[in-house]
């Protein structure tokens, strides 16, 4: 679980990033599909070219879910319960991909807010994104 200081670091960056949710989400997905093309196999029905409307719409959904987790930082598993079921029972995304996407979100946020992205903030976001990934993969069997 996150310490008070880590929670504060996550909330502080989110207060800036939330206004850019769609752009950050789309860029994170672009980084994911460019660096790890195997992740594209989950989106055969999407136009994944850079800046496509589907990429932006999906990026926005993913980052808004991250925002829900920030809002309910003391109950991430409650906040994302429905999404957890979707990913475990219906989408069946290989859990490896959650680490890759988390890494891409981290890079995107770091690139946008370089001055805010201290080692402590980096560590806090890394831990926070890991918690989200754990929640989204906890119902797998
Ligand atoms: Zn996921 C979907 C979130 C990861 C794949 N997602 C989704 C959604 C959301 C999310 C919000 C929407 C839902 C509805 O609509 O209801 N994810 C998320 C998050 C994360 C994720 C937060 C982390 C961080 N995913 C992921 C991964 C993958 C995925 C890693 C792979 C690679 N998702 C997915 C898919 C889908 C989703 C495929 C479906 C899409 C469509 O639309 O079709």
From TrEMBL:
The species this protein was found in: Apaloderma vittatum
Recorded GO CC terms: blood microparticle; haptoglobin-hemoglobin complex; hemoglobin complex
Pfam families: Globin
PANTHER family to which the protein is assigned, alphabetical: HEMOGLOBIN FAMILY MEMBER (PTHR11442), HEMOGLOBIN SUBUNIT ZETA (PTHR11442:SF41)
UniProt keywords, alphabetically: Heme, Iron, Metal-binding, Oxygen transport, Transport
One of the GO biological process terms: hydrogen peroxide catabolic process
Subunit-level organization: Heterotetramer of two alpha-D chains and two beta chains.
Keyword Iron annotated: yes
Origin organism lineage: Eukaryota, Metazoa, Chordata, Craniata, Vertebrata
Role played: Involved in oxygen transport from the lung to the various peripheral tissues.
Name of the protein in question: Hemoglobin subunit pi
Family stated for the protein in its record: Belongs to the globin family.
Annotated ranges, domain Globin: 1-141
GO molecular function: haptoglobin binding; heme binding; iron ion binding; organic acid binding; oxygen binding; oxygen carrier activity; peroxidase activity
PROSITE patterns, per database record: GLOBIN (PS01033)
Domain of life assignment: Eukaryota
């Amino acid at each position: 679980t996150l310490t008070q200081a880590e929670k504060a670091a996550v909330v502080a960056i989110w207060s800036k990033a939330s206004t850019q949710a769609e752009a950050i989400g789309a860029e994170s997905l672009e980084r994911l599909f460019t660096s790890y093309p195997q992740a594209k196999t989950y989106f055969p029905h999407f136009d994944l070219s850079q800046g496509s409307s589907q990429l932006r719409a999906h990026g926005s959904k993913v980052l808004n879910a991250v925002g829900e987790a920030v809002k309910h930082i003391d109950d991430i598993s409650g906040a994302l319960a429905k999404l957890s079921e979707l990913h475990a029972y219906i989408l069946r995304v290989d859990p490896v991909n959650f680490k890759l996407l988390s890494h891409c979100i981290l890079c995107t946020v770091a690139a946008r807010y370089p001055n805010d992205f201290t080692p402590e903030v980096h560590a806090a976001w890394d831990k926070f994104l890991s918690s989200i990934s754990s929640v989204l993969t906890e119902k797998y069997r």
